Amino acid sequence: MIAFCGTAGLYAQQKDRILPKANAEYAENKFAEAEANYRISDSKFPNSTAASFNLGNSIYKQKQSGEAKFAYAKAFKNSKTRPQKHRALHNLGNVFMNEKDYTQAVEAYKNALRNDPTDEETRYNFALAKKMLKDNPPKDDKKKDDKKDKDKKDDKKDEKKDKKEEDKKDDKGDQDKDKNEPKPNENGEPKPAPGGISKQRLENLLDAVNREEKKVQDKVNAQKVKGKPVKTEKDW
């Protein structure tokens, strides 16, 4: 259960007579009426932290958390004290949790704790957000992991294919070598291979060819490697 700073805030500015009225409506659970008056107060006193924060709470209570985050963000911007920043960030974290944006929620709660390390509700929400992020990694990260797995599988397929081709070449080379193997003459001495090439010369040539093929294969493999790339909302 996400912790929320719930009761409408105080700290009304001196000449703002709308804010107390909105706070009273909020206390009576008249969230739509409170929202309307908080908007009036916020428009008349745009630098008021209390008006924008309480506006966010009244919207949040109407289950419109996506809209509430803009009010909380403004409250944070206008905040002048650490407790004010802490409350705004805590509730902003709650909004992100509702939106299942666990990365942003973790950051919001973390920064809230920096402004008030003693708040156990924020600490609880922070731990919960981290767990949810671990269990539900962002889609982009999952796509990257899937792509890495696919690349590894493709690499293994290529390696197996290359090995089969090399084995075929080696078998063919052995067959050709057997065909060109000089046959002994009547005296038991080896005959020169066709064209007058000796056995040793032929073996040297085959070794040279195999070495060249290996160099080419190594270059191909090198190119492949190179190309792979939460409890209750905070009260004001």
Overview of the molecule:
This protein has 236 residues and is mainly alpha-helical. It contains nine helices and no strands. The radius of gyration is 37 Å and the shape is rod-shaped. The model is unreliable at 7-13, 176-185 and 187-196 (pLDDT under 50).
* Inertia-based shape: rod-shaped
Order of helices and strands: HHHHHHHHH
The helix/strand class is: mainly alpha
Write down how many β-strands occur, each being a DSSP E stretch of 2 or more residues.
0
Mean pLDDT: 77
Spans of at least 5 consecutive residues whose pLDDT stays below 50 are: 7-13, 176-185, 187-196
Percentage of residues in helical conformation: over 70%
What's the helix and strand layout?
Blueprint: H1 18-27, H2 31-44, H3 49-61, H4 65-78, H5 82-98, H6 102-115, H7 120-135, H8 139-179, H9 199-227
Please provide a brief summary of the model:
The chain has 236 residues and is mostly helical. The protein has nine helices and no strands. Mean pLDDT is 77; it is low at 7-13, 176-185 and 187-196.
